[in-house]
Design brief:
about 650 residues, alpha+beta
């Protein structure tokens, strides 16, 4: 397995390497065509008429096995295997990625729309879940002169390179007074170059050393090994070529939201994107499953020119397919950019791998979170990325942009001061930026100057608080706000900071008596009641009895419908009770004894009931709540043969009408 592992290290150290490409630079508002690689929506409404990339490259590496001082790599005598600090564990990981952007361009085609066309060359190499001790022995060609037995486990190795031709479209599809929303999509044609992958299943490696003659030393392995791809990297590394039968398609999706309290500058920008959705099919490929239950000599291992040659010569293989499908390193990116003040910004970014790292022939990025303060102007930017990348840990870097040139790194500061740095990245490029600019035609001296009104709302820009968005003159050229989002504009909203219905002028409906029933539905808005009685208090049987106790003591003048003087306090008591229940309706009923004719008694009972009703109305009880009726001598409640019985029959009754 030495040859494949060596290739992965070569990938990390030689190729111009994308995990998190252009770390710290992507989020510059003048990143131009490079920014489309991170979020295609970012180019909508950009600061460029056009941005032309001549050449740019980014290299990123991260691992949890080697710890080095970056400057040591510049020494010709430096030996990585013997002089680097090693952090071997049962599960070590390596990720190396490259991104070379060739001739590319982005340009604005309308105020709301932008396009980008780009070319790229990319390479990604992953090692996941490999035993560090096994890795050390394989890398040193078993030169430790000691026997060992180790579990290599279920490791997964993938390395692939390809070219891309991408087209991106972005648009501004929401633009209100303060809020902008952008969307973008990238479609990519992928041309495969080379692909190789290895996956172990319960692999063990045992080395038996013969000190007298190392070439007689043996290597015993167990388990299974899947090995596939379209090229043997080590053997053909210098002759890799495009293969017209190896291709695929990919896509990136993104959205960006901006909050802009002023006309041309956001205060907060939020972005979300998914990149590298897709795969490449390598048709001239092979995949073989090797049974590793075998013992070979150290000489056989060291004499092999490639892993393919070594496996083919010494292990039994089953060929399973002639097509290799490589899955792109799909990732989710979330970004927040804060304009702290003037030209100073603070960026928070997260990159999350979306692929399963144990899946065959599938690559992954390293999860990363970064915090980057930056100074940004039209012709110059400086940024200081502080980041935590999976496997390599915390690192600090530095970068700048000066007109057509940019260069930076998310790890350079850490690489220079630490003697056990576990990762590195660097990016650089040269481009031709064509910025947007305002053009003013010279005005003839004899012609009066025409004041602009950009949004055509009838308010000149010099007097328009929102010159890019149409609004009424009464609001200084800005659209009316709706602060509480209740659909009622502040100018018409009686309660602009509290949501309420339009029917109540934007205010919540009140509940004056606090009984849980809104005034608009409460028949008694100032008196607590029940929902069953429409917000009014419900009258009890005890109250009805009390009313009738009063009614029975009403005294009329003999044979008349007029009240005796001592009756008026009783009537006032009845008025007070009826006012406590403003939603209740009552029937006033009059009755007589049997003295006199039926007709006379009927008339007298009606008149007496009517007299009580009239008094109640005169004293504040609504006539709509009262009815009266007379029943003469037809409903006695006692015998009319006695004086006491007749007195009981001469009565007024009050009944609740339901």
């Amino acid at each position: 397995m030495k040859k494949l592992i060596i290739f992965v290290l070569v990938m990390a150290g030689v190729l111009p390497l994308k995990a998190q490409s252009y770390l710290g630079y992507f989020h510059d508002n003048y990143a131009g065509v490079q920014s489309v690689l991170f979020n295609p929506a970012s180019i909508a409404g950009s600061n460029f008429r056009a941005d032309i990339n001549l050449f740019s490259a980014s290299i990123t590496g991260t691992n949890d096995y080697y710890g080095i001082r970056a400057t040591d790599l510049l020494k010709s005598s430096y030996d990585l295997e013997t002089q680097a600090k090693l952090f071997a564990s049962e599960s070590n990981n390596f990720i190396a990625n490259s991104d070379v952007m060739g001739p590319s361009v982005m340009f604005s085609i309308a105020p709301k729309h932008s396009l980008a066309v780009f070319t790229r060359g990319r390479a990604v190499a992953n090692i996941h879940n490999i035993n560090g001790e096994v890795f050390r022995e394989l890398s040193s060609d078993f030169d430790s002169n000691k026997s060992f037995s180790l579990e290599a486990g279920n490791f997964n190795i993938t390395a692939s390179s390809w070219a891309e031709l991408g087209v991106s479209y972005a648009t501004l599809f929401l633009n209100t007074n303060r809020h902008l929303l952008k969307g973008g999509v990238t479609l990519k044609y992928l041309q495969g170059i080379a692909n190789n992958y290895t996956k172990g299943n319960n692999v063990t490696v045992a080395y038996t050393n013969f000190a007298a003659n190392p070439l007689l030393s043996t290597i015993t392995t167990t388990g299974e090994l899947t090995y596939g791809g379209n090229e043997d990297f080590h053997e053909n590394f210098d002759n890799l070529k495009f293969n017209s039968d190896s291709n695929g398609v990919g896509a990136d999706l993104g959205v960006v939201y901006e909050y802009r309290p002023s006309e041309n500058k956001y205060k907060i920008r939020l972005g979300l994107s998914v990149t590298d959705i897709g795969s490449i099919t390598f048709k001239e490929a092979s995949q073989k499953l090797y049974n590793l239950n075998q013992t070979v000599s150290q000489a056989q291992y060291q004499e092999a020119n490639s892993i393919g040659e070594f496996l083919e010569a010494n292990y039994t293989a089953t060929e399973t397919t002639a097509i290799a499908k490589y899955v792109l390193p799909t990732a989710v990116h979330a970004n927040a950019d804060w304009n702290v003040y003037g030209k100073y910004y603070l960026n928070l970014n997260g990159d999350v791998n979306a692929n399963k790292r144990t899946k065959l022939n599938t690559s992954a990025i390293a999860n990363t979170i970064s915090l980057t303060p930056r100074y940004e102007s039209k012709w110059f930017s400086a940024y200081l990325p502080l980041n935590y990348m999976e496997y390599r840990g915390f690192q600090a870097g530095l970068g700048f942009r000066a007109g057509p040139l940019f260069i930076g790194s998310g790890s350079v500061i850490t690489n220079l001061i630490s003697d056990e740095s576990k990762g590195f990245d660097i990016h650089a490029g040269v481009k031709i930026p064509l910025y947007k600019k305002e053009t003013k035609e010279p005005e003839p001296a004899a012609v009066a100057k025409v004041e602009p009104d950009t949004d055509k709302d009838g308010v000149l820009d010099k007097n328009d608080t929102c010159p890019m968005i149409a609004g009424p003159k009464e609001n200084n050229g800005c659209p009316w706000d709706d602060s509480d989002d209740d659909g009622v504009l502040d100018k018409d909203d009686k309660c602009p900071t509290v949501s309420g219905p339009a029917k109540n002028n934007g205010c919540p409906w009140p509940d004056s008596d606090g009984d849980g029933i809104l005034d608009k539905e409460d028949k008694c808005p100032e008196v607590k009641g029940t929902k069953a009685n429409n917000g009014c208090p419900e009258i009890s049987e005890e109250v009805i009895k009390k009313l009738n106790d009063y009614a029975k003591t009403i005294l009329f003048n003999s044979t008349k419908a007029t009240f005796q003087e001592q009756t008026y306090p009783i009537l006032q008591s009845m008025v007070a009770i009826l006012k406590e229940y403003p939603a209740s309706h009552f029937s006033i009923e009059g009755h007589t004894d049997s003295d006199g004719t039926d007709a006379a008694n009927q008339t007298l009972s009606e008149n007496r009931a009517g007299a009580v009703k009239a008094y109640l109305i005169e004293n504040g009880i609504s006539s709509s709540r009262l009815t009266s009726a007379g029943f003469g001598e037809s409903k006695p409640i006692a015998s009319n043969k006695t004086k006491a019985g007749k007195a009981q029959n001469r009565r007024v009754e009050v009944k609740l009408v339901k």
